[in-house]
Amino acid sequence: MLTGRKYRAYLEQNQAEYAETIGGACRSVWNTGLEQRRGYRRRGAWINYREQARELAEAKREHTWLKLVPGHCLQQTLMDLDKACRTHGTWKVNWRGKGGKHFWSPAFRFPEGNKIRVERIGRKWGRAKLPKIGWVKFRWSRPLGGAVRSATLKRDGRHWYLSFLVETGKPEPTVSLARGRVGIDRGVAVAVATSDGRFFDREFLTPGERQRLLRLERQRNRCQQRSKRREAVKAKIRVIRRRERDRRAAFHAQTAAAVVHGNGLVVLEALNARGMTASAKGTVAEPGTNVAQKAGLNRAILDKGWHSLELAVRNVARRMGVTVRTVNPAYTSQTCPACEMVDADSRESQAKFVCTACGRREHADTVGAKNTLARGHSGHRAWRPRGCPVREASTSVNPQGINAPAVEVGIPRL
To answer: How far is the C-alpha of 195 from the C-alpha of 337, rounded, in Å?
Structure first.
């Protein structure tokens, strides 16, 4: 089974400068390859990785700066570009810039694990020998646990991080639905609510850090473009943002472990976070409505990190042999789990759900999680029109993972 290991790296000055050179070369190859692909698409043609790799080998003969960096790092850049274009489309792939909207931190991968040597030089320190860079010292915060398949070096702010793709040698656990089942509802007021009545949420910045961040952002807007003072302020902002990302990633990992542990099935709502956080400004001819409210909602959704939470859940589920399913989220928070009545008036507030038909009272997020579990548990289509409830067949006589009886969550008894 493949897994990842990430460590804090400590590069020497010449190594850091050379790593910046490699990152700049990979960025140039990415942008050139993306521009070439878009030019082909304009003409109705397509260019794949093999043709671009062949042209890259020819470009090395003309440009000496491409010879200074490891060739496999450039090839991996083209492979990542090819995968991104095939997955998201050529026009939806972003550029990699030095700053601004498409700011990109230097990152590159060494794919040949047999050429990477890792040694432990102390209780808290280790070192890895990377091609053309040499021995890189890193903080040994956890054991590798297997053979190294590849290594990735990335800069985040002022610090460098070394990540290893490790083959543990252990087979992936088999999937078993005989264990418990749980549904997850992702929200804004509460980050995660489960079908068994648990809630997970936390703030990723303290009030003092938020005030400092706001003050720095205002100071950045007053600075002159491309000035040294502006770059210094942006560096301070990145420190706070990195701290926020680390806390969010830790929260997602801990929540995913708590939710997945002991269950055989985890059901999530299929949320399109990118579409839900699109701007409502509109155009000059047709301006949008409630732009400020929509902007606040977008910030709240992005702050909770719905997509990264799903990735964390899938990562933990893969290691523990748990099935993860996604269902359509339509009407999950407006459907009564007891009588299956769909009514928007049942959702009295953000947290209060009172069924207009049977009078059932429950937390609205818990209701959404229970309906999500019922839809993923049955396998039927995941939406129900008003007045036309869908009777969902169960896959077990005694469904697990929820506190309420099977009838109360829309699953008929056998």
So the answer is: 11
Ranges of beta strands (E only) in 13-101 are: none
| Nearest-angstrom CA–CA distance, 46 and 309 | 35
Q: Tell me whether residue 119 is one of the annotated catalytic residues.
A: no
Enter the pTM of the model.
0.76
E strands, 46-198, are 107-110, 117-120, 125-130, 134-139, 147-156, 159-167, 180-186, 192-194
Q: Tell me whether residue 246 is one of the annotated catalytic residues.
A: no
Q: Annotated catalytic residue: which of 82, 269, 310, 392?
A: 269
Model pLDDT for residues 120-168, shown as the tens digit of each residue? 999 999 999 999 999 999 999 999 988 999 999 999 888 999 999 999 8
Helical pair 228-260 and 306-320, crossing angle rounded to 10 deg: 40
**Residues near 408 by beta carbon (within 8 Å), at least 6 away in sequence:** 337, 338, 360
Task: State the number of CA atoms in the 13 A half-sphere of 396 facing the CB.
Answer: 17
CA distance 230 to 217: 10
How many CB atoms are located within 10 Å of the residue 18 CB?
17
345 is catalytic: no
Residue 94 CA to residue 116 CA, distance in Å, equals: 31
